[in-house]
């Protein structure tokens, strides 16, 4: 399958003659990443915190067992959809799915605003709702998922196609830049795309909207908050039928965005978590105090051997820093890839696919990849620059959470290491720690061998919740 073409879901596989094109394989592989760990389904190492439900209908009791599902079988799903879920490795609903699915699947359809940590099955929840509601006898767009980047859109397309693989005749398509001919019609049941391409395609009547039932915004806080993207999302919604089910999902919803979200998805059922319940269990959060900005590069190189052991992402603030780091590291013989918004679509697709397949182990990127991208093998995230708001001064806790959420997917062990080098970056990181009511642990730079052993121990540990003190004891 190519993300430039319609993707019919195969009939249930009949044997060895069933084959997939390379792109289809990469998307399907990508998504057992975004689905669930195949060995134990969605029995995830999730925080103990419960999902708080606020129902649009105030007379209903959110604790009613009707609004919770402990198994997928309880949801009265089509057999081929249950088969698709099991095939993806899900055994039972995760906490967010437990609460979200009964509400999403209710009739008549109701809007939803849902918040949950990265790696807890949000994508699978809205994909399941979409595949439950579409009518395969009508080959016209019935559901549209919007995402802030082409990488995330391609990944979501992979989840939906994978989950719906036993739904004979299902067609899904990507609506992202550089993937379709100018006058091509989108003849598919489900579309996944970016807001600009969606808006342009609807205007050109390349997308028939009259059968559209569901609009989903993934990473919704980012979409509604970003100038331009928020406006495009609002315009897309205004071009769709008025009674459409609107679903907003994100790991974070800052206070100033939640009001906009409530206007965008009126009378919605709302699922939320508190700030301090948002930091991700299973990720050991460390920081390293560096004397000055110019020493950051030398410090980064000390970690290169560790970064190569599995897969790692280095987050930087600007495209220029990403390009400079890549040039310096490649010139010194280190194998790294770099991805930022400056690259064209085909190049971005090639790089993210290389990273997924393990051809590239270390990826340098800006915040373009901070959200939603699932690559199972990522065990280390380095914040080369502390994430800040657009003004460059104030800390950005939400972006920090999204960045570190690229590791430790589905309860696996991961390391997040943040560089601080002056008073300002120290204050920014401290503000982030206070926001989430969490403590970050310092790395002792006087003994690099001990640092390496410590991080190796965390990466190879089977238990995510061990403290660094316990790890240190293990290696002495």
From TrEMBL:
Q: Where is the DEAD-box RNA helicase Q domain?
A: 70-98
Instruction: Quickly give the catalysed reaction.
Output: ATP + H2O = ADP + phosphate + H(+)
Q: Where is this motif: Q motif?
A: 70-98
Task: Give, as one word, the top-level EC class.
Answer: hydrolase
Q: Which terms in the GO cellular component ontology are assigned?
A: nuclear membrane; nuclear pore
Q: What is its EC number?
A: 3.6.4.13
Give GO BP annotations, semicolon-separated: mRNA transport; protein transport
Helicase C-terminal domain ranges (all copies): 282-451
Where is this protein localized, as stated in its record?
A: Nucleus membrane; Nucleus, Nuclear pore complex
The answer to whether the entry has keyword Nuclease is: no
On the tree of life, the source organism's domain of life is Eukaryota
Q: What is its main location?
A: nucleus
Q: How does it sit in the membrane?
A: Peripheral membrane protein
Q: Which GO terms describe its molecular function?
A: ATP binding; hydrolase activity; RNA binding; RNA helicase activity
Protein function: ATP-dependent RNA helicase associated with the nuclear pore complex and essential for mRNA export from the nucleus. May participate in a terminal step of mRNA export through the removal of proteins that accompany mRNA through the nucleopore complex. May also be involved in early transcription.
Fill in the subunit field for this protein: Associates with the nuclear pore complex.
Family designation: Belongs to the DEAD box helicase family. DDX19/DBP5 subfamily.
What protein name applies here?
A: RNA helicase
Give the species.
Answer: Westerdykella ornata
């Amino acid at each position: 399958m190519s993300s430039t073409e319609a993707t019919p879901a195969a009939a249930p596989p009949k044997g060895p003659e069933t084959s997939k094109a390379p792109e289809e394989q990469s998307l399907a592989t990508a998504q057992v990443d975004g689905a669930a760990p195949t060995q134990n389904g969605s029995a995830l190492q999730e925080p103990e915190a419960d999902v708080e439900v606020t129902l649009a209908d105030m007379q209903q009791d959110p604790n009613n067992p009707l609004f919770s599902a402990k198994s997928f079988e309880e949801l009265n799903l089509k057999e081929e959809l249950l088969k698709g879920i099991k095939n993806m490795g899900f055994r039972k609903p995760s906490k967010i799915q437990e609460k979200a699915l009964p509400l999403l699947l209710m009739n008549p359809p109701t809007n939803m605003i849902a918040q949950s940590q990265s790696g807890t099955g949000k994508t699978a929840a809205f994909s399941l709702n979409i595949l439950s509601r579409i009518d395969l006898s009508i080959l016209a767009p019935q559901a549209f998922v919007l995402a802030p980047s082409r990488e995330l859109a391609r990944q979501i397309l992979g989840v939906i196609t994978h989950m719906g693989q036993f739904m004979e005749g299902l067609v899904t398509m990507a609506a992202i830049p550089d993937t379709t001919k100018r006058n091509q019609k989108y003849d598919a049941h489900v579309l996944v795309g970016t807001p600009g391409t969606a808006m342009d395609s609807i205007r050109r009547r390349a997308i028939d909207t009259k059968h559209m039932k569901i609009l989903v915004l993934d990473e919704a806080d980012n979409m509604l908050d970003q100038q331009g993207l928020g406006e495009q999302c609002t315009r897309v919604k205004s071009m769709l039928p008025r009674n459409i089910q609107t679903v907003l999902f994100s790991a974070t919803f800052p206070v100033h965005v939640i009001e906009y979200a409530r206007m965008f998805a009126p009378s919605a059922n709302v699922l939320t978590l508190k700030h301090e319940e948002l930091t991700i269990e299973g990720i050991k959060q460390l920081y390293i105090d560096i004397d000055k900005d110019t020493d950051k590069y030398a410090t980064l190189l000390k970690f290169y051997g560790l970064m190569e052991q599995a897969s790692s992402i280095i987050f930087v603030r600007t495209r220029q820093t990403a390009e400079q780091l890549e040039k310096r590291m490649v010139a010194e013989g280190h194998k790294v890839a770099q991805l930022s918004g400056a690259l064209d679509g085909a190049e971005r697709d090639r790089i993210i696919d290389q990273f997924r397949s393990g051809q590239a182990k270390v990826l340098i990127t800006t915040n373009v990849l901070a959200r939603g991208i699932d690559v199972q093998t990522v065990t280390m995230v380095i914040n080369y620059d502390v994430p800040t708001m657009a003004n460059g001064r104030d800390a950005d806790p939400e972006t920090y959470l999204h960045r570190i959420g690229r590791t430790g997917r589905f309860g696996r062990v991961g390391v997040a290491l943040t560089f601080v080098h002056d008073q300002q970056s120290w204050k920014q990181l401290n503000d982030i720690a206070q926001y989430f009511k969490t403590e970050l642990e310092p790395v002792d730079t006087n003994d690099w061998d001990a640092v390496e052993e410590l991080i190796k121990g965390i990466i190879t540990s089977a238990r995510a919740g061990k403290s660094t003190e316990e790890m240190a004891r293990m290696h002495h």
